[in-house]
Amino acid sequence: MKSQTGLLFVLPALIVLFMLIAYPVAYTGLLSVTDGNGHLVGFKNFAAVLKPRVTTQAFINTIYWVFGSIVFQVVLGTLTAILLNQSFFGRGALRAITLIPWVVPGIVAATTWAWMFHTEFGIINYMMTGSGVLQSPIGWLTNKDTVMPVLIAINVWKLFPFVAIMVLAGLQSIPNDLYEAARVDGASFWEEVWYVMLPSVRPVITAVTLLLVIWGLNSITIIYAITRGGPANKTLITPIQIFRLAFESFQFNQAAALSVIFFGVAIVVVFIYIKVLSAQPGEAK
Amino acid sequence: MTASATRVIAQPKMKKPGLSWPIILIGSILVLVVCMFPFVWMGLSSIKTLKELYSVPPIWWPAVPTFDNYYKVLFESNIPRYFLNSVIISVGSTGLALILAIFASYGFARFDFKGKPYLQAFILVGQLLPTAAIIVPLFITLRVLGLVNTYWGLILVYMIVTLPLSVWMLTSYFRAVPVEVEEAAILDGASRLGVLFRITLPLSLPGLVAVIVYAFVTTWNEFIFALCFATDSSVKTLPIGLAEFSTEFNTDWGAVMAASVVMTVPIALLFLVFQKMFVGGLTAGATKG
Q: Over the stretch A110-124, which tens digit does the pLDDT of each residue have?
C-alpha cells in the first residue's frame, strides 16, 4: 500500500522525463542506422560522418574547449571563494556581484564580449594598444590563433562564479576545530589553504568539475553566437557540428550518428570520472 | 622566554590568520571590475549615438546620452513580442516544473518504494545528458506531435533542463521538515495531500523560492532548444531575438547593447531580490551530499 503511494507522487515527473529523455535517446539510436526513408543502412551514416576531416577537428576542438575552460574556471573560482571566505566590509555585496556573470543570459555575455573584442571599435584593443601591451589592434575573433582562447576566456568569465559560490559553501561548512588545530601547529594562511581548506572542499570541487564537464560539452550558446564555429572551423565543437548537420544541412541521420558517438564518448568520460572519484584513497570523511 | 610568554597569552584567543588587507582590497577590486565591467560597457554603449560608438579611440562617456537605441529596440523591432514570448514560456515551464517537482520530491523524501534509488538516479542522469545529442530526435518528436513552434513545445522541452535539479533541491528541503510534524497532522485527520500543501510546503518556502528562481532564470536564458524548436517569430524567445538582431540590423551595436540591457535587467533584479534563498537552495544539495 505504502509503496504505491510513493510511486504515485513520483510518477508524473518520471513520465515527462522519460518521454523527453529516454525515448529521444532510443530514437537517436534508430535514426543513426537508418536513411531518410526509414530503411536500415547499417553503419553507413557513421562512416559518412566520420570520414570528413572536420569531424576529427571538431573533436579536438571540443576537448580543447572543455579542458581549457575547466582548468581556469576551477582555479579562479576557488581563489575567489577563498577571498570571499575572508571577513571584510562589503563581502555580502561582493558575493552577490560575483554571481551576476553566471546569472545573465549566455547570449548577452556573448554579444557584449564580442562588442568589447571588436577589432576596430572594441574597448579591449583600445586599452591594450593605449597601454602599450600591443603594438597594433588584433582581430581577436577573426584571427585563427586567438579566437579559441578568447572564447574560452569568455566561458571562464561566465562560469567561474558558479565554482566560487559552491566552493565558498564548502569552505563555510568546515568545522572550526580543524582551523584551530592548524593554528596550534603554527600554520600560515597559505598552509591553512593547502592543508585544511583544499582537502575539505575536494568533494565539492570534484562534483562541480563534473557539472562543468557536462556544461562544457553542452555549451553551444557562446561559440555559436560569436563565431558559429568559424573562422575556418577553428572553433567548431561537436555539439555545433551536430546542430549544423541537422538544421543547416538537414542530414538528420548523419547528425544522429554523430550524436550517438558524442553521447557514447560523453558517457565514458562521465563514467571514468565517477570511477576515479570513488576510487580516490584517503578521503577524509 | 618572551616567545613562549606571548604564545601562552595568544593561545586562548588566537587571531585567525587571514589574507592581509591589501590583498583583500586588490582581490575585491579585481573581482568587482572583472564581473561588472562588461555590464558597465554594455550600459554605456546603449546610450551612445552611432558616431560615438564607431569612433577611434573609443569615447568613455557619451557627450549627450541618447535613448534612440532603446526606441529602436522597443518600438521598431520584434523584441517586445519576443519579451512576451519569453515571459509566457518561462512562467509556464517554471510552473509546470514546480508542480511536477513538488510531487516527485515529496514522493522521494517521504516514501520508500521499489526501485527508488534507480528512479532517483534516472532523474539525475537527466541533468548529465548532453543536450546536443538529443536535439534531433526531440525535434522529430515535437514535429510528430505538432508542437514545433508552439509555446507548449518549448515549455515541455524545458522540463529536461529544469526538472532534475528542481527535484533534487526540493527533496533535500522536504527531508529537512521533521516527520513528526506531518504525523501529528495525519493523526488529526489530515490527508496526505493536505499535509503536503498545508504543512510541508509552507515550511519549505525557501526551497520553493530557490526552485522558482532557478527554473525561471534557466529557461529565460536558454538558447539552443529555442533556436531549434522556435523558428517562427510568434514564439521566438528573447535570446533568439538578440542573436538575430545582429544580422537584422547589420550589427547595429547600439541597438544590440540596448536589447541586452532590456533582457538582463529583469533577470538581474529577480536574482538580486532572491539571491540569499537561491544560493542557499543551490548549495544545500552540494554540501549535504
A: 999 998 988 878 888
